[in-house]
Amino acid sequence: MAADAEELRKFQHIGARWWDAEGPMRPLHLLQPARMRWIRDQLLAHFDRDPGCKRPLVDLRVLDVGCGGGLVCEPLARLGARVTGIDPLPSNIDAANAHARAQNLAIAYRVASAEDLVVAGERFDAVLALEVVEHVPDVDAFLAELAQLTRPGGLLLLSTLSRTLSALLLAVVAAERLLGWLPPGTHDWRRFLKPSELAAKLRAQGLRPVALTGLAYDPARERFLLVRDPSVNYLLAAVREGG
Questions:
Q1: CA 82 to CA 80: how far, in whole Å?
Q2: Closest of 105, 101, 100 to residue 78, by C-alpha
Q3: How many whole angstroms separate alpha carbon 65 and alpha carbon 142?
Q4: C-alpha–C-alpha distance, residues 238 and 229, integer Å
Q5: Across the chain, what does the average pLDDT equal?
Q6: CA separation for the pair 221, 217 (Å, rounded)
Q7: Fewest beta carbons less than 10 Å away: which of 145, 147, 183, 207?
Q8: Which 3 state secondary structure label does DSSP give 218?
Q9: First vs last Cα of the chain: how many Å apart?
Q10: How far apart are CA 23 and CA 14, in angstroms?
Q11: Cα(171)–Cα(162) distance, integer angstroms
Q12: Residue 34 CB contacts under 8 Å (≥ 6 apart), including other chains
């Protein structure tokens, strides 16, 4: 599936500022602790790994689709996973490679799409697509590609935004227009999917949803928390059937 050129233009200016916690990716830096905790817990539970081990994801093949500057790839690599990160923007991959080298981390970054890896016949134990679903032009085609990239019995992890009034007010109006976290127009609320809608689309691709949680912003502490309510940001895990 070809990337949406208009959506890509929204992120072309970021480049090396991916790792600037006070820069244009500040919302992702605020999301990062809670999001990574959930991702780690899902991977450990699904693949029956020891949570007390320093590198519990050793030899697990993990793909991050739309990896940007590598904010998620690096902690996964530190946990021992064999990480591949792909992104259609060369500037993002350049930033990711530069930062990984400075951290002495071996991560396989590529300028590529999910479709490219499907054509190459690649499969992974776990596939991540975080804050990506709301930006693709054809969600069904994209989810079909993610399903093909996830080995039978493997795990798909997604994060996105729900199409609710709360999400419109908080993730679009507040984040883009009031707080200035994101440039106006970063998100199109019409592209958001409710958890039930995304779950139905995953089932149609042979993926069984197994976990759902919400993310909520705590302005007093300037951090995101994992919550039961998925009405704004949410994380969803699904298992590829056949394993």
A1: 7
A2: 105
A3: 10
A4: 18
A5: 87
A6: 9
A7: 183
A8: strand
A9: 26
A10: 9
A11: 10
A12: 215, 223, 224, 225, 226
What are the φ and ψ backbone dihedral angles of 164, each rounded to 5 degrees?
Answer: -130, 165
Cα–Cα distance measured from residue 49 to residue 57, given in angstroms and rounded to the nearest whole number: 7
CA distance linking residue 124 with residue 76, whole number of Å: 14
Structure tokens at 236: 């969803």
Q: What is the pLDDT of residues 124-179, one digit of tens each?
A: 999 999 999 988 989 999 999 999 999 999 999 999 988 876 655 555 544 444 34
Identify the H or E element spanning 74: helix 73-78
Cα–Cα distance measured from residue 124 to residue 199, given in angstroms and rounded to the nearest whole number: 21
Give the CATH number of the domain where residue 224 resides: 3.40.50.150
- The secondary element (H helix, E strand) that includes residue 45 is helix 26-46
DSSP annotation of 206 reads T
CA torsion angle for 193, 197, 198, 200 (degrees, to 10)? Answer: -170
Number of domain units in the chain: 1
Give dist(CA 234, CA 228) in Å, integer: 9
Per the structure block, which two tokens stand in for 49?
A: 């790994």
> Percent helix, strand and coil across the chain, each rounded to 5?
40, 25, 35
* pLDDT value at 243 more than 90: no
Contact 85, 108 (CB under 8 A): yes
CA-based R_g, the chain, Å: 17
Confidence (pTM): 0.88
